[in-house]
Design a protein that fits this description.
The chain has a single domain, classed as dinb family like domain (Four Helix Bundle (Hemerythrin (Met), subunit A), Up-down Bundle). It has five helices and no strands. The radius of gyration is 16 Å and the shape is globular. 34% of the residues are buried. The model has no long low-confidence stretch (mean pLDDT 92). This is DinB family protein.
Length: 173
């Protein structure tokens, strides 16, 4: 599904539709910002914290899946903390050898399809299932999870804004 990277202009009282639209928007924005960088810039960091744009994309792929699939649905996912060098205990973001920008962008949008399905088939006040990410009740509501994931995307899109501006002067959405 082709998604515009223009900010959604939905006039609807349906918060699920708003979440879907804004998450689609931010996925498209971060993919476009990263796609404009050279291979070298994708794999190196201009920042003291040291993360690279590819590492950030890997983080977003895993983060969204951790919250919606492993978290809300409690479905098993392969390597839920695969974006962190130290696994669940954190550490630097990491990208497995051989993983490309195209791979990560495809996975980002595939995950978005799954998120869209979850947000459009479950009520926002439903609590996440226990047994995946959440080991004891009460798990957070789908609404809380959606807000959390949306703010992660917005924050990291801003981080990529800065990296992109440092790389080639490109600013804005």
């Amino acid at each position: 599904m082709a998604v515009s990277d223009a900010e959604p202009r939905l006039d609807t009282p349906d918060p699920s539709a708003q979440f879907v639209a804004y998450l689609d928007h931010y996925r498209t924005v971060v993919a476009r910002k990263a796609a404009g960088l050279s291979e070298e810039r994708l794999r190196t960091s201009p920042l003291p914290s040291g993360w690279t744009p590819l590492e950030m994309l890997a983080h977003l792929v895993h983060m969204e899946r951790r919250w919606f699939v492993w978290g809300f649905l409690a479905e098993p996912v392969e390597a839920p903390w695969g974006d962190h060098e130290g696994g669940e205990d954190g550490g630097r973001w990491t990208v497995p050898e051989g993983v490309t920008l195209d791979d990560l962008i495809a996975r980002l949008h595939e995950g978005g399809e799954r998120t869209r399905e979850i947000l459009t088939t479950h009520p926002l006040d439903a609590r996440g299932a226990v047994g995946g990410r959440f080991t004891a009740p009460p798990a957070p509501t789908l609404s809380w999870i959606a807000f959390h994931v949306l703010q992660e995307y917005a924050r990291h899109a801003g981080h990529l804004d800065i990296v992109r501006e440092l790389a080639d002067g490109t600013t804005g959405e």
